[in-house]
Amino acid sequence: MASSANQPRGGKPRGSEFVFARLRYESGDWDYNPKVAANVLDSIVLVVVPDYNADGNEALAAQARSRGAQNGPEMVGTRPNAQGINLNRDYVRAETPESKGSLAMFNLERDLRLAGMGFGTSSVGELGCVVNAFDNVASGAASFTLRPISITDGDPTGVPDSIEVLYGNSAFFVENENFGNGTAATLAADTKYGFKRGDLAVMTDGGATCRLIQITDDTSPDKSVLAFGTGNYTDYYDGTNKPVRWNSASASMPLIGAGNLYDLGPSPRRDVWSIDPATSTLGFINRMSTVDVNQFFGVAEGVVGMKAQYGYDADADKKITDAEWTKVQPVDWTKVRAVRVALLIRSRDFEKPPSASDAESPKYRLSAPPTWSGSATSPFVMKNVDGTADSDVIGSPNNWRYYRYRVYEKVIPLRNVIWGQP
Fold it and tell me: Where are the domains of the chain?
């Protein structure tokens, strides 16, 4: 998938003109190379925003003032949008819905594209198993479910959805190794190379019994033996001696004698994405953080809604039809091929009625909530700006209807699962 956003500053039409010419070319509308164009469209999804700053392009101003170094025309679009903000310079303060939405979706999409890294080849019986884990830093059980993503449906309680994303970060291409001779502290892999001291790995019995371990020794002359002890170890990556975090001497863990071993690398992520209702901020908590497993990292403000659905390939035809988008927890996680997500962004500016005497006919008022592709079954639930139930007070700054919104929506393929499954 590729995207192109053009004319963040008004008065520069060449970007839009080029992208329309490119679309004609890709669609085979030009005779000189239709075969190449058809091949391109067979292998890519191209998303185009021809006019990113529609306000600025509509608000014409004298060229001499807006574009002094430009050779005509007499009237050109303005650089800022209707709020007086230059969209091409708004990626630090992120004051506009366009910038907030772009930043929010960029960060969320990056995480979702990594989902399943390190265990995408897991079998039907393994994906969805509860991974027994104990975190010595957080001093407690830290079990989790082995699945690339998990959507918590907010519809029943009228709140935004949340999404949990799990992925590893090993730099070595060693995803799935068979092992045997498993004990409480050692195992014998078919080959141990690629599993390094400090790596986390998921042991399974090939089915629903799963356990998280941390490799503490890979130096045995035996090419198969890996250890996951409970004392200090020398980390492969920085060479320091440190206490083990994920192997417990006291917690009860299942003993798995043989099965599969999945390498998650030294710093896997289990990010829980959600919206902080107090600040309307999209962010995440990394439940495997080395600093604080409960710390919320804000990414973008002004995000008031998030919706997500699984793309579940129920008929195994390797395609997701409209009927196959769902929030229902999958029975077979190997058939989850994609996730569809939508973010609802609200502008900061209250669109006031023209006067106090004309409060019942304001110049801007939404008649219905914003929509997304899944609105038929999972619509955005709109509330007052302060988070209370919708009261629809005419002319009130607390009324959501007097603000502008943007919906940022994407379908994100779970490539690590797609590549790892038949």
Answer: 2-89, 169-267, 271-420
